[in-house]
Design brief:
By secondary structure, the chain is mainly beta. It has two domains: 214 residues, Neuraminidase, CATH 2.120.10; 81 residues, Thrombin, subunit H (Beta Barrel). 0% of the residues lie in helices and 46% in strands. A hairpin with a 6-residue loop joins strand 18 and strand 19. The radius of gyration is 20 Å and the shape is globular.
Length: 303
């Protein structure tokens, strides 16, 4: 049984006129949440198409169960795992093995539509589906089920706790004890929205939660938000990435798709790749020796 953090009706958020750490603040009951400021200037950056990149297409002809891939994870043995709209797929470089629910077998995969994948520190694979959250032991091939549906993003903090993003709030899960807690948009946890896109811990140990209303810095001990970065996101995807230089990138679907949050000045700066409304927006980001790699809805670009 999950513990719900907060049950009182949400108090009205009141914007105060005082400045707080370089931005405004929100007063909710007796709590004051610092608000990041937004730079009105959008920075335009050049993007070079990755024409030198080469790909091999894997589809249903090669044994993939379904062609819509939501997430990909590599396990410790080098197998690639694909989250599809029909089952979990494992690829060994030659062929696919598909995991689906087998009625009457409690050790089989518990869902159908796979939303998220994550490999924890012990090498276990966590799978969020439309039915349940599953933990897969790659060595035995058995699944353990947890009663949390529609998990779209999974992260693990330095204490080993798993954090699960859903459209019905944020969950924490202790993988050792199985204890589950539920955090909501209410008068106690003060999450900016129940529509949680992703979460994660930065190198300084701060924990961040990306919701449909922006980015929240969440104090796990006090169980409440201490800073809010306004960035409304109506799409399904929104995440963040701290690069090797400590730059904190926000990747989202709505608008230009890319922003940087300065955690010292508490300022959000938007970036734009186009003179007009972009035909596609950034969804993934990573570094390599050539620079920042960006994945887009309509293709892959490298800048």
């Amino acid at each position: 049984m999950a513990t719900v953090i907060g049950s009182k009706p949400l108090l009205r958020w009141v914007l105060t006129v005082s400045l707080f750490f370089g931005g405004s603040s929100l007063a909710v009951g007796e709590d004051i949440i610092a608000q990041a400021s937004v730079d009105p200037v959008v920075v335009k950056v050049p993007v070079v198409n990755g024409s030198s990149l080469h790909y091999n297409l894997l589809s249903t002809a090669q044994g993939l169960s379904q062609t819509k891939i939501n997430q990909i994870v590599e396990d410790r043995q080098g197998f690639m795992w694909f989250a599809t709209q029909y089952g979990l797929n494992r690829y060994d470089g030659y062929k696919f093995k598909v995991f689906v629910n087998v009625p009457g077998n409690p050790n089989s995969f518990g869902g159908v539509f796979v939303n998220s994948l994550f490999r924890d520190r012990l090498g276990m694979i966590w799978i969020g589906s439309n039915q349940l959250l599953d933990r897969l032991d790659p060595a035995s091939g058995t699944f353990q089920h947890f009663p949390i549906p529609y998990v779209i993003h999974i992260s693990q903090d330095s204490a080993g706790t798993l954090w699960l993003s859903t459209g019905e709030g944020l969950y924490s899960l202790d993988p050792v004890t199985g204890k589950i807690e539920h955090y909501l948009h209410d008068s106690r946890s003060l999450l900016s929205s129940n529509d949680v896109k992703s979460s994660g811990e930065d190198r300084a140990g701060n924990f961040w939660v990306f919701t449909s209303e922006g980015l929240d810095r969440f104090d796990r001990q006090a169980r409440k938000v201490t800073l809010h970065v306004p960035l409304r996101e109506t799409g399904r995807e929104a995440s963040f990435y701290e690069d090797r230089y400590g730059v904190f990138w926000l990747i989202h679907v709505t608008g230009d798709g890319l922003a940087v949050f300065d955690r010292k000045t508490l300022t959000l700066t938007h970036y734009c790749f186009y003179d007009r409304e972009p035909p596609s927006t950034a969804l993934i980001m990573n570094w390599d020796r050539m620079g920042i790699g960006l994945g887009f809805c309509a293709g892959a670009n490298r800048g």
